[in-house]
Amino acid sequence: RGRRGKRDDSVEVFSAMRTEKAIRRADLCVLVIDLVAGITAQDRKIAQLIVDEKKPCLIVLNKFDLFMHNEKRVDRVEAATAHVRRELFFLAYAPFVACSAKLGTSTEHVLKEALKIRKTAQDVPTTGKLNRILHGAFEATVPPIDNKLRKRLKLYYATTAMNEKYSVIPVPTIVLFVNDKRLMATSYESYLTNRFREAHPAPGVPIIFSVRSRTRREWEPHQKPQGH
User: Nearest Cα to 65, choosing from 95, 108, 101?
Assistant: First the structure.
């Protein structure tokens, strides 16, 4: 390979490092998608970094004026929505705004949606509500018995813990005290995430679970959740 190829690789690596650093430092990540070009491999990489860093996120669909411009607006919005949800399914918690930066159409909604994400994030559920939601989820779909450990996951108590790095837009960690954290399957955690979102919507804000093993005796005083 020639010098140009090596230089291009160096630029790409440097760009990726800058992007990763920016995501880590951001309070809210705004992922801008070129609707005409469609979602690229680079877009997916950045989206995955946002998910890995557990950052609040807003997706901006730019060049909406050029996207299927001969079709009705309702059909264009539906097609854009389907495209984003299909290609960035792992970033499903992020809402999006369709706009045109060049024409300035709907660009004001970007800031409005960002402020909305911040406002809804501040509505952290009480301990009582949190436990009602999660215990209800466990009752609705009982975890299966683990074949190796020969027991099933049991939830004793849940609470929230705040992280200093989320000072601008609160993203609480939901701490689950269970009988054995090894029993928490990825599929069941996804189920709990979906049930929690249904009961307590917070568009743009990731849900973070921290599962900890405890004995029932340690948490008997907490069996009746406090709060409303």
Answer: 101
Residue 158 is encoded by which pair of tokens? 């849940």
User: Quick one: residue 13, left, alpha or beta (phi over 0 = left, psi -120 to 50 = alpha)?
Assistant: alpha
Q: Are 145 and 132 in contact (CB under 8 A)?
A: no
Last residue of a domain, one of 87, 121, 155: 121
- Cα separation, 103 vs 36, in Å, equals 15
What are 49-74's pLDDT values in tens digits? 999 999 999 999 999 999 998 899 89
Query: What gap in Å lies between CA 189 and CA 170, rounded to an integer?
Result: 21
Model's pTM, two decimal places? 0.82
8 A C-beta contact, residue 31 and residue 94: yes
The helices-and-strands tally (H runs, E runs) of the chain is 7, 8
DSSP assignment of 71-122: S-HHHHHHHHHHHHHHHTGGGTT--EEE-BTTTTBTTHHHHHHHHHHHHHHT
Same domain, yes or no: 91 and 160: no
Structural contact between residues 203 and 112, judged by C-beta atoms closer than 8 angstroms? no
Q: Which amino acid is at 177?
A: F
Are 161 and 113 contained in the same domain? no
* pLDDT tens digits along 87-143: 999 999 999 999 999 999 899 999 999 999 999 999 999 999 999 999 999 999 999
Domains in the chain, number: 2
